[in-house]
Amino acid sequence: MSGTDRAAVVAGLGVWVPPGVVTNDALAQQLDTSDEWIRSRTGIGRRHIIAPGESSGDLAVEAGRRALKSAGTDHADVVVVATSTPDRPCPATAPEVASRLGLTGVGAFDVGAVCTGFVYALGVSAGLIESGFASTALVIGADTFSTILNPSDRATRAVFGDGAGAVVLRGGAPSEHGALKGLHLGSDGTRSRLIEVAAGGSRQRSTGLPPDEADTYFTMEGRAVFAEAVRHMTASVQETADRLGWATADIDKVVLHQANARILAAIAERIGVGSERFPSNIDRVGNTVAASIPLVLADANSSGELQAGQKVVLGGFGGGLSWGSVGLVWPDISTC
Ligand code: UT7
């Protein structure tokens, strides 16, 4: 993505959400919340949740299988899984996902950048292709935040859902439709505690003390994160557009991490591009973390909202803090 004559080109797209659905009304039966509050504050109407015993890896395998089918192949030289809810703390989820897809022996590793994970994984995978190390890559975003939410936290339980999405990248020319370009990545570790699971890692475990139960769950300082999300995704999308020489008015679709419908509206206003250029499926799936961007891409591609030849910028923001964007001219692919 940095001036070489070889590019990583999007060749396939596959997605999967578990069949279990939790509506806002169902949440309101367990918590002090309401359909009206959740819809008006977030734009979310329902979310999908895995069944007992299922995992992020299970969703990743299904999305990966579908992406390979969409690309018309059964092979990838490398499998990268973006997730912050791995099947186990150790080892990485990707090797087992690769083996379940019939790809034992290929390079396979996880990327942890929370809700920016898919953009980071695209960037790393594109680099492996551009360098000539790999001819094809399967890039999967899969998360099951339902497994790490505090059952009594109405703010996070209203927001997050489970899901997975994947793309196949292949080597090609920078001029092709689907070629990834204009990658921008950023982070701010001084604000890492705004989004965290405090316990379960080396810092807490090295104390030798059992964790407080509340620290074993995901926490997020919603208001502060909201402001950071608007600030950094706006700047990152603009940075990618600048790197590509695209005026923001020329961008046909801005496909962002689906954190909150009000965040999308605020960014549209700041960038000065109409909200109709921001595809959204947050009403149906909520915030699916690393799966969010491929899931909204798949919906927009299937509905015809996203058309081959359109200029697209993908953008993410999440824990770390981390953020990133990448551009492409949308290719002619069908979603599986
Ligand atoms: O994906 C990674 C990046 N994540 C984000 O970008 C998320 C950004 N943040 C948000 O989307 C929003 O901050 C939330 C949706 C998480 C929360 O919405 P908010 O409008 O920022 O609410 P708040 O946290 O400022 O809380 C306002 C009030 C509080 O009540 P009090 O203290 O004023 O009495 C909350 O307890 O809203 C209450 N509240 C709720 N009420 C009903 C929080 N969640 C709920 C709920 N139902 N589900």
Can you offer a commentary on this structure?
This protein has 336 residues and is an alpha/beta fold. It folds into two domains: 166 residues, Peroxisomal Thiolase, Chain A, domain 1, CATH 3.40.47.10; 149 residues, Thiolase/Chalcone synthase (Peroxisomal Thiolase, Chain A, domain 1). Helices cover 33% and strands 23% of the residues. The protein is built from eleven helices and 13 strands. It has a five-stranded mixed sheet with strand order 1-7-6-4-5, with helices on both faces. A hairpin with a 3-residue loop joins strand 12 and strand 13. Helix 3 crosses helix 4 and helix 8 packs across helix 9. The mean pLDDT is 97. Bound molecules: oxa(dethia)-CoA. The site of oxa(dethia)-CoA has 21 residues, from helix 2, helix 6, helix 8 and strand 12. Pfam families: ACP_syn_III (PF08545), ACP_syn_III_C (PF08541). Belongs to the thiolase-like superfamily. FabH family. It comes from Nocardiopsis gilva YIM 90087. This is Beta-ketoacyl-[acyl-carrier-protein] synthase III.
